[in-house]
Amino acid sequence: MKPKLSILLPAMLGYETVLAALDSWEVQTCRDQLEILILCPDHLGPTAAQAAALPPGQVIVPIGSAHLHEARVIGIQQASGEYAMLAEDHCLPDPDWAQAILDRLEEGWDGVGPALRPGNRTSCWTEGSFLIGYGEWMMPVTGGPTAVICGWNGTIRTQLIRQLGSECAGELLTGAFLVRRLHQQGHRFYLEDRAHMRHFDPPGWAYETLLLAMVGLGFGATRTRRWSLPARILYPLATPAVAFLHWKRAFAHYRRAGAGAGVRPTALGAALVLASAWGLGEAAGALMGTTRVAPHIWRTEIKPVRREDVARSTAQERLAPLNSAALVSTPPNRSSANA
């Protein structure tokens, strides 16, 4: 049976590093309607024993020495499903995620995004990073038609990505701009609040700050890629404003759903520091350009989760479940984006 949905799971540090993610994908309630394409460097694939024991629907896709955005192009080219999900190794679906997504896709949407929650609550820094990166889709959130779904961990009609042709790799450098381009072309998106995922962030303020600066590199390079050289040189002058807008987004979504999600208030202070790092990264990215930035920003997305991290997160959620009283919340701004 042809799968309806292709999951593109990057394993840039090796097959062994995505076992926890694969656990979550394998327990989907409609697993038979999915194919899981594991994008893996040639020398970091499964052992012979692991390869022989791969479950049906799991496919190892050798990517040679390709960068992450190039690996995703390879995955899109091999995807059999009508829709492709651009997965991350540190964002894990709840068991009924796929069923909720597929039910919504039956209505003919071009893309469907999930609702997310922090997977680890080890510090205000992990929560601050989550607020900036995924606050717009933070549970509790109201589902419905939207201009913006998350670029990574969103599900998009495969052919829409394929038809980008030679521009595909560039658009897959930063998922937010792929979504923005497709929306500008008139394609329709839906935020599915029944499709839940946990997003894990690495602990530690220094690591988080470095990661957000590198996220900024990608955004700055992509945002200004068609600008003139003088405009790109002047872009760093906007750094304070760029940083403020990123923090403002985090603040708005903390007010909307922070209490319901159990996010501590100190996460806003951490978010201010991280937003500043993002702004500085954007300034540098504008000056460097996409060609020089591309080999580096994969580090912002490759943060594999260990099985013990997942078990710890699950135990914490059982002790402190999402505040059900906060499930009726103000909808997010449907016209905004990861600026």
Describe this structure in words.
It is a single chain. The protein has 339 residues and is an alpha/beta fold. The protein has 2 domains: 5-201 and 308-326, Spore Coat Polysaccharide Biosynthesis Protein SpsA, Chain A; 205-300, no CATH class. It has helices at 19-26, 48-52, 68-78, 97-105, 124-134, 158-162, 168-171, 175-184, 205-223, 229-234, 239-261, 267-288, 290-293, 307-319; strands at 5-10, 34-40, 58-62, 83-86, 91-93, 111-118, 144-146, 155-157, 189-199. Strands 1, 2, 3, 4, 5, 6, 7, 8 and 9 form a 9-stranded mixed beta sheet that branches. The longest helix has 23 residues, at 239-261. Mean pLDDT is 93; it is low at 324-330.
Q: Stretches where pLDDT falls below 50 for ≥5 residues? A: 324-330
Query: How far apart lie the N and C ends?
Result: 40 Å
CATH topology of the largest domain: Spore Coat Polysaccharide Biosynthesis Protein SpsA, Chain A
Q: Which word captures the global form? A: globular
- What is the radius of gyration computed over CA atoms, rounded to a whole number of angstroms? 19 Å
Largest sheet: 9 strands, mixed
Helix content: 40-55%
What is the residue-averaged pLDDT? 93
* CATH architecture identity of the largest domain: Alpha-Beta Complex
Whole-number total of structural domains: 2
What are the secondary-structure elements, in order, as H or E?
EHEHEHEEHEHEEHHHEHHHHHH
Strand percentage lies at: 5-15%
How many DSSP-defined strands? 9
Q: DSSP helix count?
A: 14
Provide the structure class: alpha/beta
Q: What is the CATH level 1 assignment of the largest domain?
A: Alpha Beta
Look at the structure and name the CATH superfamily of the largest domain. Spore Coat Polysaccharide Biosynthesis Protein SpsA, Chain A
